[in-house]
Design goal:
- The chain has 17 helices and 17 strands.
- Helix 2 runs parallel beside helix 3 and helix 6 packs across helix 8.
- The longest helix is centred in the first third of the chain and has 20 residues.
- The C terminus is likely disordered.
């Protein structure tokens, strides 16, 4: 199927062609016609599947068509409620709201609306916390058709009377599972209470657990479910490997893997902000360009670090889950779970940073003795075993039931998921060059 067959307008199609997108992804092929029909949609899709375009393209088309039917000029303004010390202003009403968990993801979604809507008269703005609200307030005063926001800042501006949502026609809740993980459920409900009941709602999540389904039931009307991968599955293009290593040796193991140069670039996950800073400093001391991003960093510092990785000035970005959520890094070769996440769902989100849009990728996980239960939970969730890298200089003395010598038929029978670090990194001349195995 082509984009032309989805019923998109020439203005939207020209913008898509300018990005050299020729064939829609499965989530786009399934969701776009439903959104154009005005249906509520519950989408289950991993990151990197083209999910943003799956809702951005039809939203632009629907709003643009409605604008053309009523007038060639921008939609008439509406007044916001009076707040002490402020005068209400007249502006274009917010017609579509996209609620998303992090600043980085909000900015990327807003950029997509700008790219795909370049040939329309529709305007958009993005609001998020951690920065001065002045420029965001100014954009809202000018009026926007499409607003992309994180929950905290949006509620702040609502309480100040600087934005009104009673004219929203289309509401998108993106990354719903991560919203709940981050404790945004009350904020989500407060935002929804300000929206018109008569609206179209698009609900997207990488996983569909009990809490997610209960939330969806509360806000969707006769929805159509669209799923392009099984709930909680991982991207097939991502190779997944695990190293058994003592906690004290993780830093040395990471540096040894990076020094060889086989890893082009990497996003390294730690459990805490302090851990991210510590790992980044360790890598810099080892001569490896690395930067840390987390909630204590300013937005400007986080954007600068991300740009450094994208441009190649930095090879490694060390991040916490919250800071890395929604990061879109083209051609990211590796994700490294320096600390295994306590929540198995977080593993799915982490490794989804690589292997995006059909590209291949590799996810490496470090597992110390205290993290064995986390690994078990991850493998149970994804319904496969991670490939064990059995030969490396920092192998844990307590590696569970794993042979120490590779290559024999007995070894392969004992653990069919075993592989050597030399083979994984593509080194030649390894004495274990022939001993590889893949997961289920």
């Amino acid at each position: 199927m082509s984009f032309e067959e989805l019923g998109l307008s020439p203005e939207i199609l020209n913008a898509v062609k300018a990005k050299n997108y020729l064939v829609p992804t499965p989530i786009q092929e399934k969701a776009i016609p439903l959104v154009l029909e005005g249906r509520d949609v519950m989408g289950c899709a991993q990151t990197g599947t083209g999910k943003t375009a799956a809702f951005a393209l039809p939203i632009l088309q629907r709003l643009g068509a409605a604008t053309r039917r009523t007038s060639k000029s921008p939609a008439p303004g509406v007044a916001v409620g009076r707040v002490a010390g402020r005068r209400p202003s007249s502006r274009r009403p917010v017609r579509a709201l996209v609620l998303t968990p992090t600043r980085e993801l909000a900015m990327q979604i807003a950029d997509s609306f700008g790219t795909y809507g370049r040939n329309t008269t529709l305007s958009h703005a993005v609001i998020y916390g951690g920065v001065s609200q002045g420029p965001q307030e100014q954009a809202l005063r000018k009026g926007v058709d499409i607003l992309v926001a994180t929950p905290g800042r949006l509620l702040d501006l609502l309480s100040q009377g600087l934005v009104a949502l009673d004219t929203v026609e289309i509401f998108v809740l993106d990354e719903a599972d991560r919203m709940l993980d981050m404790g945004f459920i009350r904020d989500i409900r407060r935002v929804i209470d300000t929206l018109p009941r008569d609206r179209q709602t698009l609900f997207f999540s990488a996983t569909l657990g009990g809490d997610i389904l209960r939330l969806a039931d509360n806000i969707l009307r006769d929805p159509v479910e669209v799923a392009v991968t099984p709930a909680a599955s991982t991207v097939d293009a991502v190779e997944q490997h695990v190293y058994y290593v003592e906690k004290s040796d993780k830093g040395a193991l990471l540096a040894s893997l990076l020094v060889g140069g086989e890893i082009r670039n990497a996003l390294v996950f730690t459990r805490t902000r302090h851990g991210a800073d510590r790992v980044a400093r360790h890598l810099v001391r080892a001569g490896i360009q690395a930067e840390a991003i987390h909630g204590d960093k300013t937005q400007k510092a986080r954007e600068k670090a991300l740009e450094s990785l994208k441009s190649g000035r930095t090879r490694v970005l060390v991040a916490t889950d919250v800071a890395a959520r929604g990061l879109d890094i083209a051609d990211l070769s590796h994700v490294v779970n320096y600390d295994l996440p306590e929540a198995p769902d977080s593993y799915v989100h982490r490794i989804g940073r690589t292997g995006r849009a059909g590209a291949s990728g590799i996810a490496l996980s470090f597992c110390d003795t205290s993290e064995r239960l986390y690994l078990t939970g991850i493998e149970r969730l994804i319904r496969k075993h991670l490939t064990v890298v059995a030969e490396h200089p920092f192998k844990s003395r307590l590696a569970p039931g794993r042979p120490t010598v590779l290559g024999s038929e007995r070894d392969k029978a004992l653990n069919p998921y075993m592989i050597s670090a030399d083979v994984l990194l593509g080194r030649r001349g390894s004495r274990s060059a022939g001993a590889t195995a893949s997961g289920q």
